[in-house]
Amino acid sequence: MLTVHTIAALIDGGEMDWAGEFRGDGLLLRLGAPLQPLAAPPATQIDLADQASIDALYQTAIHDWMTFTLEPARLVLCRISEPLRLGRGVCGVIGTLSHLARVGLMTHLSSPLVLPGWEGYVTLELFNAGPAPLRLHYGMPAARIMISAMEGSTRDIASAHPFYGQGSHLGSRLADEFGPLTR
Asked: Least packed by Cβ within 10 Å: which of 57, 115, 118, 155?
């Protein structure tokens, strides 16, 4: 993992962009907008090869929010407040701030990697694994990204992901990216 001094040098040299805060040797992630709740569990299963079925999970994104109550065993997606750009020589790993983990908040369920070439707003997957409702606040610190240098040959051209990081669609685009799965 890189130190804050090395990260600052990468920013100064144009290898990455980050206008947000640092926390220790990482980038501090604050909750931004939009925030997009998932709907109550549907009566039918979600077909991961059908984008319309996936989209049925998501409620309307909330762009102008100040607080939000996250009930136990519920998930909400939230874009961070500052955009991030990583060059081809670095990647990031997202971790929940331990203060929040200790009350049951998980901020990035099982996909903590931010790959080289990422550009845009990272979306956090906020899940309440605790026993009590949790009040989220716009702008509150929730997680951090630790930056690591890539070793070995990297792709000549790093590119932003075509489905994530831009716009207000925060939900899964699995079927859009991989198409219908047939046998």
From this structure: 155
